[in-house]
Amino acid sequence: MSINATLFAQLVVFFILAWFTMSFVWPPITKALDERAKKIAEGLSAADKAKADQLAANKRVEEQLAAARTDATQRLADAERLAQSMIEEAKTRASEEGAKIVAAAKAEAEQESVKAREVLREQVAALAVKGAEQILKREVNAGVHAELLGRLKTEL
């Protein structure tokens, strides 16, 4: 065989192989590459969408946290105001109760003072009667001299 025939035969075999590859081998490979590229593009698109969703979710979470903090601060302030008003109310009630107790104690002390004066007057009247009895060396009738003893009590 000559070189030209061999070269020509190799050229024919090359073209048959190229045609066979282009017809039967190349389309499934390009189809697989296109599908892979499509899946990668979809994955990147889904990743971008997920990232945007995550940013939106983070923003919503931050807004909810801010609202919760504001609400908590407001509730604390309300609780402090309520506690302060309850303390003031308790102080006022305690002051009123203290004033009532002091007034009752003063009234009771006044009553005790009046009773003590009455007892003292009676004791002084009895002592005066005994003293007069001693002076007169005779018994004085308290029933007869009740009016005199009553005036003596009121003077004391």
UniProtKB/TrEMBL annotation:
Membrane topology listed for this record: Single-pass membrane protein
Ion transport among keywords: yes
GO (cellular component) term, any one: plasma membrane
Coiled coil region boundaries: 51-122
InterPro entries: ATP_synth_B-like_membr_sf (IPR028987), ATP_synth_b/b'su_bac/chlpt (IPR002146), ATP_synth_F0_bsu_bac (IPR005864), ATP_synthase_B_chain (IPR050059)
Stretches that traverse the bilayer: 6-29
Subcellular location: Cell membrane; Endomembrane system
One Pfam family from the record: ATP-synt_B
Main localization of the protein described in the UniProt heading: membrane
MF GO annotations: proton-transporting ATP synthase activity, rotational mechanism; proton-transporting ATPase activity, rotational mechanism
Top-level taxon: Bacteria
Keywords annotated in UniProt: ATP synthesis, Cell membrane, CF(0), Coiled coil, Hydrogen ion transport, Ion transport, Membrane, Transmembrane, Transmembrane helix, Transport
Complex and partners: F-type ATPases have 2 components, F(1) - the catalytic core - and F(0) - the membrane proton channel. F(1) has five subunits: alpha(3), beta(3), gamma(1), delta(1), epsilon(1). F(0) has three main subunits: a(1), b(2) and c(10-14). The alpha and beta chains form an alternating ring which encloses part of the gamma chain. F(1) is attached to F(0) by a central stalk formed by the gamma and epsilon chains, while a peripheral stalk is formed by the delta and b chains.
Protein family: Belongs to the ATPase B chain family.
Biological role stated in the UniProt entry: F(1)F(0) ATP synthase produces ATP from ADP in the presence of a proton or sodium gradient. F-type ATPases consist of two structural domains, F(1) containing the extramembraneous catalytic core and F(0) containing the membrane proton channel, linked together by a central stalk and a peripheral stalk. During catalysis, ATP synthesis in the catalytic domain of F(1) is coupled via a rotary mechanism of the central stalk subunits to proton translocation.
Protein name, as recorded: ATP synthase subunit b
Gene expressing this chain: atpF
